[in-house]
Amino acid sequence: MEIVRLNRQQLKGFIHSDEYKVMPNVPISFHRAISHINNPRVQDDDILLILVYEIELIGYLGVIPDLVFVNNIPERMAWMSCIWIHPNARGKGIAKKMTELSIELYNNKILATEFTPIAETLYNKLGKFDELVIKSGVRIYRRSCVHKVIPSRFPKASFLLPLLSLHDVVINLFHDLFLNKENKFSSGYTVEFPIFPDNTCFDFCETFLQSQLMHRSVKEMEWFLNFPWIKETSVPSKESTRYHFSSEARSFKTISIVIKQSAEIVAFLIVTIRDKHMKTPYLYVKPGHEEVVVETINNLMCENNAEILTTYQSAIKNNYKKKISFLNSKEITRKYLQSKGFNLKITETMLQDGDGDCGFV
Length: 361
Known about the structure:
Blueprint: E1 2-6, H1 8-15, H2 18-22, H3 30-37, E2 49-54, E3 56-70, E4 73-85, H4 94-105, E5 110-113, H5 117-126, E6 129-141, H6 146-153, H7 161-178, E7 189-192, H8 199-206, H9 218-226, E8 231-232, H10 238-242, E9 248-249, E10 252-261, E11 264-274, E12 277-285, H11 290-303, E13 308-311, H12 314-317, H13 320-323, E14 328-339
Parallel strand pairs: 4-5, 8-9, 12-13
Antiparallel strand pairs: 1-2, 2-3, 3-4, 5-14, 6-13, 6-14, 7-10, 10-11, 11-12
């Protein structure tokens, strides 16, 4: 068994190599690798990808170097991003070795979230992680989409797809005729959609950084906007069949939104919409202006025919019932783990929805 570690320069060479072009299973998509390479918080010697070989690739683990700010003092750390083991190599302790190596490489300062049940079982079995915090959120179903939800959760129910699709058509016809209404903003508010936020927007965001764990600066926000992990394509590429994590979607867009009152910025947010599913990775809003944010979210969902909204932003989850027309909603949670010895103590409001790799996928 051979374990290979790739830093930024080595990862760049790897994705341009002949080996990468012919691998039956690639450990990272090309555009995701480019994003990792351009992460402004990556140092040249940081390990971004761990590969395990037994003649061919049998496992990989990806990490995202980052900074947390404790009492405004930055500490280097990393997020667990993805872990995969070839079906023929499972049960050999490979995932354990890669996870323990990642913790060692980043001096016991690792965070993890949005992990699969299998990964959570691994983390619990290792005894290397403690619970950091649990964020509460809400998933809002603005339109009926049971033809997507039920088969994804219960694959054996796929034979019901025609019936479920018909159900959605009928329900959505009624919804779009009678319930699908855009909000009219209160007097004095304006909403702008800059292709790219200007320095005024980032200056506004900086006023909130003291209350945030990650202190996202202009550089990190530019990285997030310019180097997405999801590529929009109508036909899946050959690469997507070789990579076992998210890399492509039929539709994917990132939208920057500036809300002003009397020419003064009162809120800045970034939303993503992937195949009619909206998420809210970043939100900065002055107290007292939360409802106009939710009004804006509702209008965007109407304009883009979005079916689902998933958010952990308190400003949205506490106000959505007043301003969003929806069919159903449910409370959800997102668990965050930290490696033992990290000893961070935070509240859920100190984390943005997009921190880690959540905003990218």
